[in-house]
Structures are given as C-alpha cells and as structure tokens.
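Hi V.,

You were right to ask for the full record rather than a summary. Here it is.
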Amino acid sequence: MKRLLFIFVLCTAFASGLSAGRVKVACVGNSVTYGYKIENREVNCYPAQLQAMLGDGFEVANFGHSGTTLLRRGHRPYVGVPEYEAALEFKADLVVIHLGLNDTDPRNWPNYGDEFVRDYLSLIDAFRQANPSCRIWVCRMTPIFHDHPRFVSGTRDWFWQEQKAIETVAEIAGLPLIDLHGALYDRPDLFPDALHPDAEGAGILARTVYSAITGDYGGLRLSPVYGDGMVLQRDVPLGISGIADAGETVTVSVQGRKASAVTGGDGRWKVVLEPLACSAEPLTMEVETAKRRIVFHDVLVGDVWLCSGQSNMAFRLEESAGEEVAAGKEYASRNPAIRLFDMKVNWETYEEHWSTEVLDSLDRLQYYRGTSWTHCTPETAARFSAVGMAFGRTLADSLGVPVGLVCNAVGGSPTEAWIDRRTMEFEFPDMLHDWMHNDLVQDWVRNRAVFNVAYTDNPLQRHPYEPCYLFEAGMGPFLDFSFKGAVWYQGESNAHNIEAHEKLFRMLVKSWREVWGDDFPVYYVQLSGMDRPSWPRFRDSQRRLMSRLPGTGMAVCSDLGDSLNVHPKHKAAVGERLARWALNKTYGHDVVPSGPLFSGAEARDGSIYVSFDYGEGLHGADGGPLRTFEVAEYDGLYYPAEAEVTEDGRLRVWSGQVKNPRYVRYGWQPFTHANLVNGEDLPASTFCGEASGD
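Predicted structure:
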C-alpha cells in the first residue's frame, strides 16, 4: 500500500507537468552508487534495484562515478566528471546524494577537509538551480570496514569526521538524511573489499532509499522485546521507540501516562513516558497510529535485568544439582511476579559442520529463535538460566517488586563477541583482523568456528563467536529498551590472554553503558575452580578489574568449582551472590555484598599482615586451619605459609622458609581448596598481592 508521502510525491510530480508523468530520480555518487564490483551491475546496482521497487511511475538514473570526491580540490572531484553534468541536465525531481567515501583518502581530507561543508552546499545549490522544485536527500556514508588497507592509518578517523560534517550539511541546507551507514554496519559480510557492497548489500541500500523517498517503512512496529507479559522498568523516564511510516503520529499510553511523537523521515519514532510506578497488577499498554493499534496485555512494572555471558549463564536450572532444581521449581510455582524473556539459539556451537542454509541465516544475524515473555512457572524456570533464576528470585524476595529477566547467553562465546563494532574499531581493531586465525582469539574459539563453517564458500562468513556478532544479533532488540542492570558470567573463553581480556572487559562495560547509561551496573562472576593453568592469574585479574570499573561487583565462586567440569552444577549460590552486589550497590540495602576481598598488606617482623574489605568475622569455612596461603621474598619464588586471624581482624601470614616475605597469595591453584570466609560464610577471592613496609 502506497503511503501518504509517496502519494504526495507522485501528485507533486504530475502537477509539475513531467513528461509521461514519470518522477525523475537522480542517484548521485561514487563507486557504491555506480555499482563497482557488483556482478551484472546494470541490474543489481542500487539505483537499478530502486527502479524496480519504485515501478513505472519513476525514472531512476544512475549518475555514479567511481573514485570521485565531494571535495572540489580532491584528487578526482565529482563536479569534474561527465556524470555531474549529465545529472544537472537530467533536471531530477528527486536527488539522492551519496558522496564522501573517497574523501577519506590521505590526499584529500587532511588537506581540504575544512572545505567539505562548503563544497557540499555548493553541490546542493547546483541541483536546486537545475530544478528549483527538486527534493534532495543527503546520505550518511556506507561503512568502510576494518580490512580496508588505510583503515587504522586514517580512514577510520576521517570517515567519522566526515559523517559529522554530512549531518552539518543536512542541518544547514534543511535537507533530510538517509542513513546508509546504519543500514549496513552490521553486515561486513556484504563488503568483499571492505568498501563496496555486493548485490545483496545494494538491495539493502535500495530498500533504505525507497523508504526515505516514499515514507513507506511497513507501518507501525516495535522491537520483539515488547510483548504480552513483559515487565517495564519502574521509576525512570521510560523511552519507548519503534518504526512507523514517515510523518505518522504515534501515541503510547500505559498506567495513565501518555505521550506522542511524529515519525521522522527515517521511519523512527520515540516517546518518553513519565516514570511508571511499580505494579504487580497487570496493566495494558497501547501503541497506536491512525492506521494501526497494538495492545500489550498483562504488563507489569518493576525491575528488568539482563543475564548474559557464555555457557555457565546459559546453564539451565534443570541441569543443576538435584536439590537446586527442586527448590527452583517450587519457588517458581508460587511467584508469578517474575517474568522471563528466554533467548535460545537456533544452533548450538557443538562440534559439527553447519549446513549452507544455517550459514546463510547466520550472515543475516538470524541466530536466536523467536521468543516472547513468559510467566515464571516450574516448566519455564527449569529451562531458564539457573544463575539468572537464583538472582531474580533473591531480588524479588528482597524488594517485593516484579522482576523481569532477559537471558541471551551463548555457550562458548568470547567477550569480544558482545562489544559493539565502533568501540572495537577504535579501541582494539587488531581483534577484528582475520579473527578465525588471530591468536588474540582463544584457540578453542577459533577452531570451533572454523569447524562449524567448514562448508562455507564465503570468505567473510559470520559466526556467533566473531567479534561484535552477538552484540549485533543478541543486543540489537534491546538498544532502546530500559534495564535496571546486567549480570554477566563469562571468561572461560578469554582466559588464554589476560591482558587482552582486561582491555576487552573494560570495552564491554563501556559499550553497554553507551547504550543504557553511564550508571548502568554490571555485576559479574569470577571464574570458579578447575584444572586449567591460567585460571589463578585470570581470577586475580577479574578481582583487580572491579576496582578499576565503578559500578561493578564480582561474585566469587571458586568454592563451587569442579576440577574436571567447566560447568559446575551448584548455581544457586552464584546467583544469590550476584544479587548481594545488586542489593548493596544498586538498591542501597544493608547487605554484605561479598566475601573477603584483598585490600592491602603490610610486611613486618617476618610476617605479612593482610587486610580485607568485607572481612569481618574471618575464619575457615570447615572449621579447620586456613590453607592455600603462600609467601615469597621474590615474586615467583613462593613457599607454603601458615595464616591466622589477628585481634584487629587482619590475617598474619608467615613461612619458616621465607625470612623477609614481601609477596603473598591465596588460593593460587587452578582448582583450589581455599577455605577463608567472612562472618557471612561468603568465600574470599583468591588473590596475589605485594606488601608495603620492610
């Protein structure tokens, strides 16, 4: 069905006395518009596909010329090529300009970037002079990906400077923007040379331009996270957003709050509702335009938490230790105020070759099954994350509010898969290069991916473990959805390179906070005990990260490990320990958030005196002597040590084999029998530290 704006354009065109009543559309640009490297270019370039979409009422002409710059003093100015003169002679009614990619060349932007806005406005004026009644759109540039040979040396940085300049041009000229970048930024597989989209990519460009010209975005719709039975976040200005046809008024109402917005030329709308009050009584939320009304029933208002990570977060309640399964199901049978949004994957990353159909779906980011909100019942709880369930029920009991839990964890997934692309491009681009053969990526992760995609003939084949993939596929539905915070259980797939993980985890927290706010809390799980040599140092790195990242907290679970199984079955305590951090730091409850955390050490008289945060009531968990302590005079030469609690609540640690100890560590074994706990019987984090003093 043709939309109102589409009809308006047609009517305006006919009223202008166009020959044969056809609306002339000029596609102005460089090689992307031309269709460089696209097989059967005359049919598959984006202007040709746009022609097919618009139909016989339009005449779409391709005025793309490869290698041209917007800059008039660039190395090949568009205004100096024949296509420019032909475009002016065409006297188009609609002009779509996509230029700038070649201006990122070091011959251009560093020298003449200051002239970009003025030159762009001059180009726009030329088309207005050719046809004063024409309508013009300027486009954000299509992506340039990390494999471009000049990406890090300048193209990446200049590209984003140009994108900002293009927005300035649109503002000054009073013109609409078409976001060709956002349409393709999550599809690097469609750019064989990191710069030019293939025929499928050109089709996405054509569809994007078609919607901008006609205003036809398929009508009112929202992210699939909105649905019957959902939980909305309480006590914050609540943003609700979605898509509708251009120019439509969208009205959202719930709990007596009501707000409206007019859809922009890009099809996007957003309203911000006044904060909703907590409600365990089901509500109705209505979203409507003049053409469509969507009603969501059984809506609660409370706190919504994201549960993410790898297999130990995906680990289902029904897989847990028997007593935990029974307790979890019994709790679920009497707590309807917990709601679950459980994102299961279509294909687990088992050791198997995926079919070409699966690989094609992965390229299109179709990795998760469709899902919806469900009530927490013994059946749904059994299939949900065991850690997530324990976390949620602890919050629900302590807060007395509805709790929504969203789980999108993926077994085996590395940290880098959960970070947005722009953050990765700027802060760790080395991680993106040839990732299946890049030793920054854990070898198990790389090898499993290579095995899964063995049948592909696409050198840019996507995989869930690929850097940025799970952010694009698994976080995409939630980018405009409000959460209270996130809990994270991951690290096993990054423990091979501690330094890389430290950088990646900071990037992950930053990436998520750019979406959900600077105060977005992230509480994470320290790796448990298992016979993997790198884990003691990795656990200590996780402990140190907590002090460097405000708004985070770490649940210790080294006491719950299994020496032979990366998936220990006792998960209830893990979720409860995460909830302690949330109750203390996010909600301000008087709850001890953690077991003892090393805070400092003093060397004196042949002993080391160790201080702890959350260290009141230090004792051995089993009533026996404290064990697994070691001391050293020189880092790397450790000897077993004894430890006792002093009168002032510290630990005195010493060894008859070390006369002047300076270093102390605890639980420094992959699978440890460490037994230090505090008065809440919460385990101490394993640690390694250096003492001050003599």
